[in-house]
Amino acid sequence: MNFSDKFRAVLRNAESICVLTGAGVSAESGVPTFRGAEGLWQKFKPEELANFDAFINNPELVWEWYAYRKQVMKNVQPNPSHLALVDMERLVRTFTLVTQNVDNLHTRAGSKNVLELHGNIERSYCIDCHTYTDDLEALAERKVPRCKSCGGLVRPDVVWFGEVLPAEVFQKAAKASEKCDLFLCAGTSAVVYPAASLPLTARERGAYVVEINREYTDLSLRTHETILGNAGEILPEIVHELQSVKERAS
Ligand code: BV8
Ligand code: ZN
Q1: 11 by DSSP, 3-state: which?
Q2: Lower Cβ count inside 10 Å, N or C end of the chain?
Q3: Which CATH number is correct for 5-30+78-118+165-249, 3.20.20.70, 3.30.160.20, 3.30.980.10, 3.40.50.1220?
Q4: What Cα–Cα distance (Å) separates residue 69 from each residue in 14, 34, 101?
Q5: Does the beta carbon of 156 lie inside 6 Å of ligand 1?
Q6: What would the pLDDT profile of 135-162 be if each residue is shown by its tens digit?
Q7: Which superfamily does 39-75+124-158 belong to?
Q8: Would you say the C-alpha torsion 154, 160, 164, 168 has a positive or negative sign?
């Protein structure tokens, strides 16, 4: 892949890389994205499903959606995008992986300390006593799981619209965005905040910001470069370039 001279130079000198991933990075594993033509949201509306009131009003429907997504996750594997980011972590002094995805694929691929801005679909907890549980047998009978300790409703451990992101996780992500030399934004439509503010912070603080996406997004005018194509092809090429510039420099 022929990267720009500027991007090659940034890779050669990169000491600290921050990466933000979205659903597009898991698309090549067969996980539907949210806003694409086949996107999950096409069938459902965010306001109907990914918010607390929708859950209280219709927990069966919301859990039907998450049970479907958990089922999808059982049959998919990490793809070359996830694996490339595991390799990238080993190639730079400071590497921070921030994800909006709740599919646990970065962790399954072997990435360490993944900053999960929007939670993780593998975890669930009781809305009353906050006890975490993985006892979700009720889903098999299309029922809503109830807490064994207090009988409260059990919900997925994800951040819904109108809910605050886990403060410590977001602070770490914001700090990495402020300090990195290179910010890669892969497979996200960059419409959901405050996650989408991270590349803007990086740019303001002097990082070189590169977007990797199949198409232009709301962010494209604010980045230094947009590399169009599949993340599963581009990210491994970036790792290959990083490896060769590091070998040449050593
Ligand atoms: C909050 C739940 C406030 C888990 C999700 C400004 C500041 C703060 C908040 C707001 C703000 N402006 C608006 C808000 C409100 C809201 C928001 O951002 N709304 C948007 C829609 C306008 N934000 C919130 O509510 C956030 N909460 O800030 O609270 C607050 C403050 C104080 C006190 C109380 C409250 C909470 C946001 C989290 C919402 N939860 N999901 C779940 O079920 O998943 S968001 C949902 O969208 C997913 O988590 C997903 O990760 C996220 C982003 O979507 P993408 O990952 O980008 O996926 P998408 O399908 O959109 O795009 C895929 C991209 O990949 C496309 O561009 C496509 O071209 C590309 N692609 C596809 N295939 C490939 C590819 N690219 C490369 N290769 C491929 N092969
Ligand atoms: Zn409980």
Answers
A1: helix
A2: C
A3: 3.40.50.1220
A4: 36, 12, 12
A5: no
A6: 999 988 989 999 999 999 999 999 999 9
A7: SIR2/SIRT2 'Small Domain' (3.30.1600.10)
A8: positive
Beta-strand pair 154-158/119-126: antiparallel
Given a cut of 70, whether residue 81 has pLDDT beyond it is yes
This prediction's pTM: 0.96
Interval between CA 162 and ligand 1 midpoint (Å): 11
Is the C-beta atom of 151 inside 6 A of ligand 1? no
Task: Convert the pLDDT of each residue in 170-208 to its tens digit.
Answer: 999 999 999 999 999 999 999 999 999 999 999 999 999
Pocket probe for ligand 1: among 34, 99, 157, the residue whose CB has the most ligand atoms within 8 Å is 34
Residue 53 confidence (pLDDT) above 80:
yes
- 118 classed as catalytic: yes
The structure tokens listed for 131 are 């006890």
Q: Compute the half-sphere exposure of residue 52: CA atoms within 13 Å on the CB side of its CA.
A: 7
Distance in angstroms (rounded) separating the CA atoms of residues 85 and 79 = 10
Q: What are the start and end residues of each CATH 3.30.1600.10 domain in the chain?
A: 39-75+124-158
Pairing of strands 208-213, 94-99: unpaired
